[in-house]
């Protein structure tokens, strides 16, 4: 995985104004109650943070994909894009939704160890990351398993977390101390 800059290119907001504080209060917090660095960095642009939270929150709280599959997808995107921050955050969430440590460790590896369903799901991520597309047979296999609304969600989930991974690496968002390896 690529390593973010040793210090952030855009530091998290340290003293949020009222608008920023209101938005940050609605985000995920560290164990000591601080907003995650991702959100505190995005707080420099409150409207962007608000829109980002709306879409990201949809995937995490209102999506139709099963939680386990969602987290496998996000962890595979993190592995394929080298986003250490995204990986660290979603290891925690993955465990909360029932992924084992062995599954989390294997998500960045070869696909042949996975069940047919999981292998197809992870292959879909690889195809989207590699070429912004999906092989006809991969799509058909997923379409037999998921509804059309879930297929839309799956496609956008990969794209959203791919975009987020690039942002995290480029801006140098630092992993919270409690998440650091």
What does this entry show, briefly?
The protein contains nine helices and no strands.
Protein described:
By secondary structure, the protein is mainly alpha-helical. It contains 9 helices and no strands. It starts with 17 loop residues before the first helix and ends in a 10-residue tail after the last helix.
Secondary structure blueprint with pairings:
Blueprint: H1 18-24, H2 37-42, H3 46-62, H4 67-81, H5 84-96, H6 101-106, H7 116-131, H8 136-145, H9 148-171
- Secondary structure class reads mainly alpha
H/E element sequence: HHHHHHHHH
> Which stretches are low in confidence, meaning pLDDT under 50 for 5 or more residues running?
none
Q: Quick one: biggest sheet?
A: none
Q: What portion of the residues fall into strands of 2 or more residues?
A: under 5%
* Overall spatial form: globular
Oligomer: single chain
Mean pLDDT: 93
User: With helices defined by DSSP (H or I, 4 residues minimum), what is the helix count?
Assistant: 9
Task: Spell out the key features of this protein.
63% helix, mainly alpha, globular, 181 residues
């Amino acid at each position: 995985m690529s390593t973010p800059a040793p210090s952030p290119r855009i530091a998290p907001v340290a003293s949020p104004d009222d608008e920023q504080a209101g938005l940050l209060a609605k985000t995920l917090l560290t164990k000591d109650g601080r907003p995650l660095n991702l959100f505190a960095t995005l707080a420099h642009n409150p409207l962007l943070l608000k829109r980002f939270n709306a879409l990201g929150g949809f995937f995490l709280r209102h999506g139709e994909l099963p939680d386990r599959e969602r987290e496998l997808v996000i962890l595979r995107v993190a592995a394929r894009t080298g986003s250490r921050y995204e990986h660290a955050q979603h290891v925690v969430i993955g465990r909360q939704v029932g992924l084992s440590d062995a599954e989390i460790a294997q998500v960045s590896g070869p696909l042949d160890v996975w069940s047919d369903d999981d292998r197809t799901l992870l292959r879909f991520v690889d195809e989207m990351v590699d070429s912004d597309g999906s092989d006809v047979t991969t799509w058909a296999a997923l379409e037999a398993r998921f509804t059309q609304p879930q297929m839309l969600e799956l496609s956008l989930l990969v794209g959203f977390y791919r975009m987020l991974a690039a942002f995290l690496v480029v801006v140098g968002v630092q992993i919270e101390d409690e998440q650091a390896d």
